[in-house]
């Protein structure tokens, strides 16, 4: 007889589950925040919160960042590092935040599954990783769901700008994932701080130049807390899980993050969802199940 016990749950599994919940539930919160401030101000506040979360983790844990495998970064490493800082620290989050006001929160959460498609396609086409039929099937169904949700329903070429923006953000997140996966000369903690710091600093410079107004204090505090918890502590937990479990297992669990955001959105918001959403939902679910099954079967030697 086996009795469930919290003590028997491996620490890396707890870390990746927690990170998945934190990241997934952030999308509905961002939907609330972006309605009360400009995207640039929100990006700046999230950057401050994220950097603070990572810094507090380091101070409380008393650990030092682990160095990478390469002592001296070469030109390729610098290019990958700068790519992940610019793409993952500025472009992807800014486009996502900019698109949220025009997209229902539950739909936006589902559309973020396009990150899986982008990650695999970039890995196949740019970094020449071996192709896989199962992942190809997952790409097909997720892509079909993405196109369905982004279509306005009036003509073949009429797509929702908000949904298209979320898909574009997913593409950049997928590109960022590949940059991260091939960096060896920089510790993950340094990359996370650099991404949050760069995006936040650029955002605040633009806020000053454009004279954007600051939000009410309660929304500002909520944005800082979201950055601190979801994108700061969540990032640290995700990095720890990656080290202990490997990218395949951790990534398989993390694939559930968009569905957590979708469920939270359905509970929080009363936005109308048409038939397209309910048709696309099982498509996304099927794609994520295929990805998770493929990762776990490979790791278990099946």
Radius of gyration, rounded? 19 Å
What is the number of strand segments? 0
- Overall domain count: 1
Fraction of residues in helix: over 70%
β-sheet strand percentage:
under 5%
What distance lies between the first and last C-alpha atoms, to the nearest angstrom? Answer: 26 Å
Task: Name the structural class.
Answer: mainly alpha
Low-pLDDT residue intervals, each spanning 5 or more residues? 1-7, 66-70
- Can you write the helix and strand succession as a string? HHHHHHHHHHHH
Morphology call: globular
Largest sheet: none
Number of helices: 12
Mean pLDDT: 77
Can you offer a commentary on this structure?
With 302 residues, the chain is mainly α. It has one domain. The protein has 12 helices and no strands. It has helices at 11-34, 39-61, 75-99, 105-111, 114-125, 133-150, 161-181, 188-210, 217-245, 247-254, 257-268, 275-300. The chain starts with 10 loop residues before the first helix and ends with a helix. Mean pLDDT is 77; it is low at 1-7 and 66-70.
């Amino acid at each position: 007889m086996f009795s469930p016990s919290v003590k028997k749950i491996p620490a890396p599994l707890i870390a990746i589950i927690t990170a998945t919940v934190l990241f997934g539930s952030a999308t509905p919160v961002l939907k609330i925040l972006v309605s009360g401030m400009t995207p640039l101000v929100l990006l700046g506040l999230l950057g401050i919160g994220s950097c603070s979360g990572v810094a507090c983790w380091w101070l409380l844990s008393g650990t030092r960042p682990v160095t990478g495998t390469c002592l001296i970064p070469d030109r390729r490493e610098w290019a990958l590092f700068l790519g992940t800082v610019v793409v993952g620290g500025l472009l992807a989050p800014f486009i996502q935040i900019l698109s949220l006001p025009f997209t229902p929160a539950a739909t936006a959460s589902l559309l973020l599954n396009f990150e899986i498609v982008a990650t695999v396609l970039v890995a196949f086409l740019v970094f020449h990783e071996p192709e896989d039929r199962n992942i190809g099937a997952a790409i097909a169904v997720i892509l079909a769901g993405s196109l369905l949700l982004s279509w306005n329903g009036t003509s073949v070429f009429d797509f929702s700008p908000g949904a298209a923006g979320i898909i574009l953000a997913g593409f950049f997140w997928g590109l960022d994932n590949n940059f991260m996966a091939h960096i060896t000369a920089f510790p993950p903690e340094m990359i996370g701080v650099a991404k949050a710091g760069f995006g936040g600093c650029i955002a605040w410079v633009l806020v000053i130049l454009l004279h954007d107004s600051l939000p009410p204090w309660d929304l500002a505090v909520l944005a800082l807390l979201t950055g601190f918890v979801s994108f700061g502590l969540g990032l640290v937990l995700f990095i720890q899980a990656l080290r202990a479990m490997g990218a395949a297992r951790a990534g398989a669990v993390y694939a559930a993050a968009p569905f957590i955001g979708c469920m939270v959105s359905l509970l929080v918001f009363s936005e109308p969802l048409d038939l397209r959403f309910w048709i696309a939902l099982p498509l996304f679910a099927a794609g994520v199940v295929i990805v998770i099954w493929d990762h776990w079967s490979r790791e278990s030697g099946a």
